[in-house]
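User: Predict the complex.
Assistant: Input components as received:
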Amino acid sequence: MNAYTGKILYVNLSTGSYRTDTFQEDFAKAYIGGTGFGVKTLIDNLKPGLDAFDPQNPLIYVVGATAGTMVPCTASKFGVFAKSPATNLLGEAYSTGQFGADLRMAGYDIVVITGKAPKPVYLWIDDESVQVRNAAHLWGKTTWEVEQLIRDELGDQNVRVSGIGQAGENLVRLACLINDHFRAAGRTGLGAVMGSKNLKAVAVRGTHDVGVADPGALQEFSKELYTRAEGPATSKYRGLGTAANMLTMNAQGCLPTRNYQSAMFEGIEKVSGEYLNEHFVTKIQGCSACPCRCEHIAEARDEGQFKGAIARAEYETLMAFGPYCGVDDLNAVIKALEYCDTFGVDAIGTGIVIGFAMECYEKGLISKEDTGGLELEFGNGAAMVEMVKKIALREDIGSLLAEGVKRAAEKIGRGSEHFAMHIKGLEMTGYDVRGLKTCALGYAVSRRGADHQRHGSYGWDLGGKVDRYKAEPGRGKLVMGDEDFYCVIDSMIICKFTRTIWKGGYEDIAKVYSLVTGIPMTSDEMEKAGERISNLARLFNIREGMTRKDDSLPERVMTDPIPSGVSKGSVTTQQDLDIMLDGYYDARGWTELGVPKESKLEELGLSSYASIIAK
Amino acid sequence: MSKYKFVSTDIDKCVGCRICEYICSLEKNKAFNPTKSRIRVVRIYPHTNATFTCRMCEDAPCVAVCPRKALTQSEENGVITVNDELCTGCGWCIEACDFGAISIDPKKVVRMCDLCSTREGGPACVEWCPEEALELTSTDILSQKARIERVQQLVNAAEESKHAETNA
């Protein structure tokens, strides 16, 4: 096999030992890499029904098929998998930067970490050498400090580190994994899984060649791909960045504002992508082997308490700390994002949970005593920033919010569950799906919980290709197509910002796959792989207890109409959802309860998992 | 000052994407391996990115210090050639280079940029850099460019203030 190392590394932190195993071409072709490798490895290595903090919950790192190569925007992408402490279902997150390329160069496509170290440690993967090293001096440090300390200790400024801040140590269910300073495997609480193992970080250095099957043809095709990647297909990301969405989402009446109390924000001008780029962005830099460079680094430069704060600013995270919390001061937003990076919490989820807390505070469900003296009202940027810290450190009500919005609402009660914006226990993201019906379905069925990244089905609604305000059974087929395509994208792993440079459906992707790995792959086979991976993920969740009733939407989305703007009056009811769910399950070849049929399993080569559906 | 041409980076344009490392290693080793690239990217947080590669120094210090005389420099273009038979991988030249432009191959011989002198189209990194941050240039050309740019800035500023005056 070319590109693939074919090697799996198993590390047992309880005993401090490790072993390696291999996989063959049939596994590689069926599951591709990234998502496919992650889901397959997790379902095969996890005992069902375990608590996410159980030492036997495996923390799994995977790279994509094209990791370590010059295929645009793919070299360093990697995925992390485990059972999620937020949802008790599939935990899955992706990141990029520089880390992933080194993991492949070190010689591993999959790393499975089990057990729990008796004392804080970090894992050091240095080509064939694998060490579990003392991390007592790193515990309690921020993610940025940890990377620098490890680099200094190992004497190499090019060592790549994926690690946790205090949030992961404190088992905050929103804790994430930070690598290369500004990049995060952000969602589903994987940082807490790492912390529960007394593991502070994974450090890696790889020096091996990554060979490809046809270097000449790959270079040739890459030239074409690079030209496309530097053209109009990616101009948004290279220009304002995803922050461009701020004004457009606001104009379309689907920008989550004040915990979804509204879909438009009156302070939008001061938090727009235009304003951000003009006043705060100091540099746009790139990830490994990326011709697009989209990493917008923003710095708070206005005089005041947040001066000097620095973070990467994208739409979702700007939304979560801007309009979502009613804050129109980008200085405060950037500081909040910096805290998310350094303390290591999911910026999207943390913004949503703080927005929830703000609504609780304004409704008198939590008090100033609960907040440790903070006036946690919508629009109070300073209080919002402090609350990020309190969540990471589990101080005052931060300790309850650290459990995620679902658990926090269950504890607070008194009607707060009505506006706890989550699906399956994962916080909502930046699309008001009351006015985006296809997107609503995508969110409801997303395997890791509320998520726009597993489907991108807002494209149909916002692009005007369907009636965004109408629920129809046919949306099911659209979402299925989106999900399977994204499964392949997330298995290769290709940056979604470049998704439109890949033409002919799966054709270009299948072509590049073969040029890189030497494994023949047709467009149809690739599409089937996407479907296979989607189904395997569904089986995983079913095995962990998920049912049709978990494919739902937040209560507010189903009952409170959008109050104003372009989407005024919109709501996505249970009835709307049921119409679309029935259509989706049918398109997928699943029962009305959302369980894959035996015939579907057979079709996809997943019959060995038939026991999961035989209940 | 060197009369020779070398690959120089515009630090304002470099975004640290490392495509130069990927393409150089592919050119020289038929496989992707940034650690074997002759051009190396440095990123210093939060957002400083630059590369360094052989500057084709006149009276190159690496050539002077080699105890085995394994390095020779071309009169024509300043490219330094390594005699693999003589090189012992002692690394003395690496210490002598102010730019960190020399690295050691796993075969324990040193490597540095040779301007892709056998490649049609010249340096691969210059061709592939998506930001056009790399340039095959010389110090003479760079300093002339800087002078012209500064003067142009003065001209532009003068035009602007003249324009503002007439409109006032």
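The longest strand of chain A covers residues 199-205.
Let me know if you want any component modeled separately.
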